[in-house]
Fold this sequence. Notes:
Elements: E1 2-7, H1 9-12, H2 30-38, E2 41-46, E3 65-69, H3 72-76, H4 81-94, E4 102-106, H5 119-139, E5 142-145, H6 162-177, H7 180-183
Parallel strand pairs: 1-2, 1-3, 3-4, 4-5
Amino acid sequence: MKVICYGDSNTYGFDPRGWLGGRYDADNRWVDILARRTGWEILNWGMNGRAIPSQAPAFPADTDLLMVMLGTNDLLQGRTPSETAQRMLRFLAELTVEHDKILLIAPPPVAFGAWVQEQRLIDASAELAVQYRALAERLGVRFADAGAWGVGLAYDGVHFTEQGHWAFAEGIWKELIVSPAASENTSPNTSY
């Protein structure tokens, strides 16, 4: 099973405790935790600061599952949830990956912190999940709401803590094991 995780700094594994853009070690990044647990080939295509691109990259033809989690940076740049969802619609519509192989993940809502000083941003990030759910239904792609997984955020109100990465990995694991598309012809390892 070949999985690509396409996202921003929370997919990359950014460690907000350092000033130089470091990342958590592989033992504490959700992508790597998930790879160990499933035994699948999982590629981390996360990048710090990534907003929803205006043009979709070319993903490998043999991709079995594409997980997309973007939108937080769009909101931090001043876009509304509706504008962000429209950008995501254009992005997903351009993909050559079959829609039944795409999992759109709504990022956990941001919280008050060093980067988040306004209730408006918190409300917008919660609204994004509603917009993404409707978008996923419209396009026929799978959807997951990471806001329901108890993901802990660091002092900045945006980035996952190490414990947050573990909570995210557990949430996405539960999402994937109940899905016939993800578990077909696989035998994931049930321990870390």
